[in-house]
Specification:
Order of helices and strands: EEEEEEEEEEE
Structural class: mainly beta
Radius of gyration: 14 Å
Number of helices: 0
Number of strands: 11
Distance between the termini: 41 Å
Low-confidence stretches: none
């Protein structure tokens, strides 16, 4: 019902910035949750951030400690797109970044949620 496509990855020097996009198509809703995950070579996939919204509730976001103050997640309702603005990038941020969708709204969208839909991933490489 929902297809997700990530874009915006690339190569950047430490301290630089990138903005990732996740565009949703197919059946979309006025409420839901979008999460960002990343996986570095030889490591497990880890949660980065999530944003949850509805037509009758506040928009809520949650960040893992390692990216707080550097990454910002946002949503453009008209474009059905979620963004991940990444500033002050570090070499340890290097990974394939994935977006994922959950059909439900959460007041506190922590990293243990299950997601029904996943994108193909986009590579982010931060050089030292």
């Amino acid at each position: 019902q929902v297809q997700l496509v990530e874009s915006g990855g690339g190569l950047v020097q430490a301290g630089g910035s990138l903005r990732l996009s996740c565009a949703a198509s197919g059946r979309t809703f006025s409420w839901g949750t979008m999460g960002w995950f990343r996986q570095a070579p030889g490591k497990e996939r880890e949660f980065v951030t999530a944003i949850s919204w509805s037509s009758w509730r506040n928009t809520n976001s949650y960040y893992t400690d390692s990216v707080k103050g550097r990454f910002t997640v946002s949503r453009d309702n008209a474009k059905n797109t979620v963004y991940l603005q990444m500033n002050s990038l570090k070499p340890e941020d290097t990974a394939v970044y994935y977006c994922a969708a959950n059909r439900n709204y959460y007041s506190d969208p922590e990293g243990n949620l299950e997601y029904e839909y996943w994108g193909q991933g986009t590579q982010v490489t931060v050089s030292s």
